[in-house]
Amino acid sequence: MITAVLPTYNRAPMAFVKGEGSWLTAEDGSRYLDLGAGIAVNALGHANPALVAALTEQAGQLWHVSNLYRIPQQEKLAQMLVDKTFADTVFFTNSGTEACELAIKMARKYHYDNDMADRVEIIAFEGAFHGRSTGAIAAAGSEKMVKGFGPLMPGFKQLKWGDHDAIRAAISTRTCAVIIEPVQGEGGIRVVPDQCLKGLRDLCDETGTLLIFDEVQCGVGRTGKLFAHEWAGVYPDIMMVAKGIGGGFPLGAVLATENAASGMVAGTHGSTYGGNPLGCAVGAKVMEIVADDAFLDAVSRKAAQFRQGLEGLVASHPTVFEAVRGQGLILGLKCKAATTDVVKAAYAEHLLTVPAADNVLRLLPALNIPDADITEALARLDRTALRIEAA
Ligand SMILES: *Cc1c(COP(=O)(O)O)cnc(C)c1O
Fold first, then answer.
1. Ligand 1: distance of its center to the CA of 108 in Å?
2. Between 293-316 and 277-290, two packed helices, what is the crossing angle to 10 degrees?
3. Which of 104, 147, 271, 275 is the most buried (most CB within 10 A)?
4. How far is CA 108 from each of CA 3, 156, 177, 389, rounded to the nearest angstrom?
């Protein structure tokens, strides 16, 4: 018999009742060290007091008004994002998937309005993840996500990750945009080299193609810059943001240049909940904390400490771990053992990690994880590896 909750997830049996910082308490009272952070969502840890205050203060004032009216909390957060990024304008969504939908629409509308209505094709990359809507699965195109859900939205093409020649060959007079994660998350924590992002930007400029960055997972301070692309000094025309920006409240955004967004006039797009006062009040507090040089420097310092420890684990457990990947606190341990076994063994050590493709164990701790919790996480990963070795 089907469960009351649609069984689309392979769930672990634990249920959590309370969170504090990098720790979660299960129903049985036992505590787990959380290196998943709700898949890069709880960027400032669980029950962060500043976010709880921002949310409860707003909750006592006003939960929701429609986008028929001005929403000052939305204007404030948009201005913060515009001040700190390449973008001139922001649209708020409830999720990364919805951000993907708008990114696609915006890119196509741009060419349509510039009398190039046949420029509809969007180039994406193998291993990408952009969400689960019909548009987002058509963009990423993996067999696992699209099988049985056709006909797919036409106009997408996937290229091999990291093949610059293939991109040059694929861009034609029908190309609308290229969409890429500067650090691929679900695909196995694959960092696009700075040179490749630069080459891609140049190619897009030469051909009038829009460049869309999906920073839903790698953005909002995760790499030690506010957004990952800042490391390469390469800027997109359109960017998708979600996950960390809400710190746990469902919030996403599309950021764009004035030029790329020029087609999105009144009536062309909308959302009932997108940019509501609750989400934006929390988002503004997240930005206030994260978009700060001292905070971002601390992320890089913690990341270096964590990474050094992980390299040590690879050296001491060569039959379990193979290599460390990633940038900042979006880290991956490429495993020799099956990742699913490693995740399970980590549960036994009361440590939460997230599997990714390419047999990679994803480590996405809260950006403000205390140094002592990093040390504790490394000890638990060490014991996890010992469990695998003993099995
Ligand atoms: C999670 C994710 C999405 C989808 O976001 P949802 O909020 O789950 O809709 C899109 N792109 C990337 C890179 C992601 O990691």
1. 21
2. 80
3. 104
4. 40, 12, 8, 52
Could you tell me where the DSSP H helices lie in the chain? Answer: 37-40, 49-59, 72-84, 96-113, 134-140, 143-146, 164-170, 194-207, 277-290, 293-316, 339-348, 371-390
CATH class of 16-47+293-390: alpha beta
How would you classify the pairing of strands 31-34 and 351-352? parallel
Pocket of ligand 1 (CB under 6 A): 95-97, 129-131, 181, 185, 214, 216-217, 242-243
Residues 139 and 122: beta-carbon distance below 8 Å: yes
Could you read off the pLDDT of 297-343 as tens digits, one per residue? Answer: 999 999 999 999 999 999 999 999 999 999 999 999 999 999 999 99
User: Residue 18: what are its φ and ψ, rounded to 5°?
Assistant: -155, 145
- Which among 262, 223, 220, 279 is positioned nearest to 95, based on CA atoms? 279
CA atoms within 13 A on the CB side of 74: 25
pLDDT tens, 90-134? 999 999 999 999 999 999 999 999 999 999 999 999 999 999 999
**What's the pTM value of the predicted model, to 2 decimals?**
0.98
| Domain 50-290, CATH among 3.20.20.150, 3.40.50.410, 3.40.640.10, 3.30.70.1450 | 3.40.640.10
Distance from the alpha carbon of residue 391 to the mean position of ligand 1, in angstroms: 35
